[in-house]
# Entry
Amino acid sequence: KAGVTQTPRYLIKTRGQQVTLSCSPISGHRSVSWYQQTPGQGLQFLFEYFSETQRNKGNFPGRFSGRQFSNSRSEMNVSTLELGDSALYLCASEEENTGELFFGEGSRLTVL
Amino acid sequence: KNQVEQSPQSLIILEGKNCTLQCNYTVSPFSNLRWYKQDTGRGPVSLTIMTFSENTKSNGRYTATLDADTKQSSLHITASQLSDSASYICVVSPGGYNKLIFGAGTRLAVHP
# Structure
Protein backbone atom coordinates (compact mmCIF):
# COMPACT_ATOMS: atom_id res chain seq x y z
CA LYS A 1 0.00 0.00 0.00
CA ALA A 2 1.55 3.29 -1.09
CA GLY A 3 2.10 5.93 1.56
CA VAL A 4 1.24 9.61 1.54
CA THR A 5 2.93 11.36 -1.36
CA GLN A 6 3.81 15.03 -1.33
CA THR A 7 5.12 17.03 -4.25
CA PRO A 8 7.34 18.82 -4.77
CA ARG A 9 9.81 17.80 -2.07
CA TYR A 10 11.83 20.97 -2.30
CA LEU A 11 11.17 24.35 -3.83
CA ILE A 12 12.56 27.86 -3.73
CA LYS A 13 10.43 30.95 -4.27
CA THR A 14 10.89 34.68 -3.85
CA ARG A 15 8.84 37.06 -1.78
CA GLY A 16 5.53 37.98 -3.33
CA GLN A 17 5.22 34.82 -5.39
CA GLN A 18 2.68 32.12 -4.78
CA VAL A 19 3.11 28.38 -4.38
CA THR A 20 0.93 25.29 -4.68
CA LEU A 21 1.76 22.07 -2.87
CA SER A 22 0.18 18.72 -3.59
CA CYS A 23 -0.68 15.75 -1.38
CA SER A 24 -1.93 12.32 -2.41
CA PRO A 25 -3.30 10.40 0.59
CA ILE A 26 -3.21 6.68 1.20
CA SER A 27 -5.81 4.93 -0.93
CA GLY A 28 -9.14 4.83 0.89
CA HIS A 29 -8.33 7.68 3.27
CA ARG A 30 -10.80 10.56 2.93
CA SER A 31 -9.30 12.96 5.47
CA VAL A 32 -6.25 15.06 4.66
CA SER A 33 -4.70 17.60 7.01
CA TRP A 34 -1.88 20.09 6.48
CA TYR A 35 0.76 21.35 8.91
CA GLN A 36 3.52 23.93 8.91
CA GLN A 37 6.75 23.20 10.74
CA THR A 38 9.40 25.91 11.08
CA PRO A 39 12.91 25.30 12.47
CA GLY A 40 12.73 24.65 16.18
CA GLN A 41 8.94 24.89 16.21
CA GLY A 42 6.30 22.27 16.64
CA LEU A 43 3.76 21.34 14.04
CA GLN A 44 1.23 24.10 13.45
CA PHE A 45 -2.14 22.96 12.12
CA LEU A 46 -3.23 24.65 8.90
CA PHE A 47 -6.47 22.93 7.85
CA GLU A 48 -8.19 19.60 7.40
CA TYR A 49 -10.33 18.37 4.54
CA PHE A 50 -12.77 15.48 4.49
CA SER A 51 -14.64 14.46 1.36
CA GLU A 52 -13.85 17.76 -0.37
CA THR A 53 -15.08 19.88 2.59
CA GLN A 54 -12.91 21.87 4.96
CA ARG A 55 -13.62 20.40 8.38
CA ASN A 56 -11.19 22.41 10.49
CA LYS A 57 -8.99 25.43 10.11
CA GLY A 58 -5.99 26.68 12.08
CA ASN A 59 -4.98 30.22 12.89
CA PHE A 60 -3.24 31.21 9.69
CA PRO A 61 -3.89 34.25 7.50
CA GLY A 62 -6.08 34.05 4.43
CA ARG A 63 -2.98 33.80 2.23
CA PHE A 64 -3.02 30.11 3.14
CA SER A 65 -5.75 28.13 1.42
CA GLY A 66 -6.45 24.59 0.42
CA ARG A 67 -8.82 22.31 -1.35
CA GLN A 68 -9.56 18.66 -1.80
CA PHE A 69 -10.61 16.87 -4.93
CA SER A 70 -13.08 14.04 -5.43
CA ASN A 71 -10.23 11.50 -5.45
CA SER A 72 -9.15 12.81 -1.99
CA ARG A 73 -5.98 14.41 -3.34
CA SER A 74 -5.41 17.78 -1.75
CA GLU A 75 -3.58 20.96 -2.59
CA MET A 76 -2.58 23.90 -0.48
CA ASN A 77 -1.74 27.30 -1.82
CA VAL A 78 0.18 30.17 -0.28
CA SER A 79 -0.11 33.53 -1.99
CA THR A 80 2.07 36.61 -1.63
CA LEU A 81 4.87 34.65 -0.01
CA GLU A 82 6.77 36.13 2.92
CA LEU A 83 10.18 35.17 4.27
CA GLY A 84 8.49 33.70 7.35
CA ASP A 85 6.64 31.20 5.20
CA SER A 86 9.87 29.24 4.77
CA ALA A 87 9.07 25.91 6.41
CA LEU A 88 8.47 22.22 6.02
CA TYR A 89 4.86 21.68 4.98
CA LEU A 90 3.51 18.31 6.00
CA CYS A 91 0.41 16.55 4.85
CA ALA A 92 -1.23 13.64 6.65
CA SER A 93 -4.05 11.31 5.77
CA GLU A 94 -6.20 9.68 8.44
CA GLU A 95 -7.32 6.10 8.81
CA GLU A 96 -10.95 6.53 9.84
CA ASN A 97 -11.28 3.44 12.02
CA THR A 98 -8.34 4.24 14.29
CA GLY A 99 -7.82 7.96 13.75
CA GLU A 100 -4.16 7.24 13.09
CA LEU A 101 -2.37 9.82 10.98
CA PHE A 102 0.07 8.89 8.26
CA PHE A 103 2.37 11.72 7.27
CA GLY A 104 4.10 12.38 3.99
CA GLU A 105 7.75 13.34 3.78
CA GLY A 106 6.87 16.98 3.42
CA SER A 107 7.53 19.82 1.02
CA ARG A 108 10.36 22.08 2.09
CA LEU A 109 9.69 25.64 0.97
CA THR A 110 12.40 28.29 1.01
CA VAL A 111 11.36 31.89 0.42
CA LEU A 112 14.15 34.26 -0.58
CA LYS B 1 -6.93 26.49 27.01
CA ASN B 2 -6.02 23.17 25.39
CA GLN B 3 -2.28 22.63 25.71
CA VAL B 4 0.28 19.86 25.48
CA GLU B 5 3.62 20.41 27.19
CA GLN B 6 6.61 18.16 26.72
CA SER B 7 9.78 17.85 28.75
CA PRO B 8 12.66 17.95 28.49
CA GLN B 9 13.01 20.13 25.42
CA SER B 10 16.15 18.23 24.45
CA LEU B 11 18.08 15.28 25.79
CA ILE B 12 21.43 13.63 25.12
CA ILE B 13 22.06 10.04 26.14
CA LEU B 14 24.65 7.38 25.43
CA GLU B 15 23.88 4.44 23.21
CA GLY B 16 22.46 1.53 25.15
CA LYS B 17 20.99 3.66 27.92
CA ASN B 18 17.29 4.06 28.71
CA CYS B 19 15.41 7.33 28.78
CA THR B 20 11.94 8.66 29.55
CA LEU B 21 10.19 11.57 27.88
CA GLN B 22 7.29 13.37 29.54
CA CYS B 23 4.04 14.82 28.24
CA ASN B 24 1.50 16.77 30.30
CA TYR B 25 -1.75 17.91 28.78
CA THR B 26 -4.72 20.08 29.60
CA VAL B 27 -7.07 19.01 26.85
CA SER B 28 -10.77 18.49 27.31
CA PRO B 29 -12.56 16.49 26.22
CA PHE B 30 -10.02 13.70 25.75
CA SER B 31 -10.21 10.97 23.16
CA ASN B 32 -6.69 9.62 22.73
CA LEU B 33 -3.00 10.43 23.11
CA ARG B 34 -0.40 9.68 20.49
CA TRP B 35 3.37 9.62 20.31
CA TYR B 36 5.17 10.25 17.04
CA LYS B 37 8.83 9.97 16.08
CA GLN B 38 10.17 12.49 13.58
CA ASP B 39 13.58 12.11 12.00
CA THR B 40 15.19 15.36 10.88
CA GLY B 41 13.62 16.59 7.64
CA ARG B 42 11.16 13.71 7.46
CA GLY B 43 7.48 13.30 8.26
CA PRO B 44 6.45 12.04 11.72
CA VAL B 45 5.79 8.33 12.16
CA SER B 46 3.26 6.99 14.65
CA LEU B 47 4.64 5.03 17.61
CA THR B 48 1.56 4.51 19.79
CA ILE B 49 -2.05 5.61 20.21
CA MET B 50 -3.70 5.23 23.64
CA THR B 51 -7.30 5.79 24.61
CA PHE B 52 -8.63 6.77 28.01
CA SER B 53 -8.81 3.19 29.21
CA GLU B 54 -5.28 2.18 28.24
CA ASN B 55 -2.48 2.60 30.79
CA THR B 56 0.42 1.32 28.74
CA LYS B 57 1.23 0.37 25.20
CA SER B 58 4.45 -0.91 23.69
CA ASN B 59 5.97 -0.78 20.23
CA GLY B 60 9.26 -2.65 20.28
CA ARG B 61 11.68 -0.77 22.52
CA TYR B 62 9.19 2.07 22.94
CA THR B 63 6.70 1.93 25.83
CA ALA B 64 4.14 4.65 26.40
CA THR B 65 2.18 5.10 29.60
CA LEU B 66 -0.92 7.18 30.23
CA ASP B 67 -2.41 8.45 33.49
CA ALA B 68 -5.70 10.02 32.50
CA ASP B 69 -6.37 11.17 36.07
CA THR B 70 -3.24 13.32 36.28
CA LYS B 71 -3.24 13.98 32.53
CA GLN B 72 0.30 12.77 32.11
CA SER B 73 1.98 10.46 29.65
CA SER B 74 5.51 9.20 29.28
CA LEU B 75 7.47 7.52 26.52
CA HIS B 76 10.18 5.16 27.70
CA ILE B 77 12.92 4.09 25.31
CA THR B 78 14.85 0.99 26.28
CA ALA B 79 18.40 0.19 25.22
CA SER B 80 18.68 3.24 23.00
CA GLN B 81 20.21 3.03 19.55
CA LEU B 82 21.77 5.70 17.34
CA SER B 83 18.70 5.50 15.13
CA ASP B 84 16.55 6.70 18.03
CA SER B 85 18.01 10.17 17.52
CA ALA B 86 14.94 12.15 16.50
CA SER B 87 12.21 14.44 17.79
CA TYR B 88 9.40 12.81 19.73
CA ILE B 89 6.05 14.52 19.57
CA CYS B 90 3.12 14.04 21.92
CA VAL B 91 -0.30 14.70 20.41
CA VAL B 92 -3.70 14.74 22.13
CA SER B 93 -6.99 14.30 20.34
CA PRO B 94 -10.13 15.85 21.86
CA GLY B 95 -12.17 13.54 19.67
CA GLY B 96 -14.86 14.15 17.11
CA TYR B 97 -13.93 16.64 14.45
CA ASN B 98 -11.82 18.73 16.84
CA LYS B 99 -8.29 19.40 15.70
CA LEU B 100 -5.35 17.64 17.31
CA ILE B 101 -3.25 19.44 19.92
CA PHE B 102 0.48 19.05 19.33
CA GLY B 103 3.31 19.32 21.82
CA ALA B 104 6.51 21.11 20.80
CA GLY B 105 8.44 17.85 20.93
CA THR B 106 11.53 16.54 22.68
CA ARG B 107 14.69 16.37 20.63
CA LEU B 108 16.68 13.25 21.55
CA ALA B 109 20.30 12.71 20.57
CA VAL B 110 21.86 9.30 21.13
CA HIS B 111 25.65 9.38 21.13
CA PRO B 112 27.97 6.39 20.67
About this structure: Chain A has a mean pLDDT of 94. Residues 52 and 68 of chain A are 5 Å apart (CA to CA). Chain A is about 0% helix and 55% strand. Chain A touches chain B through 23 residues (CB under 8 Å).
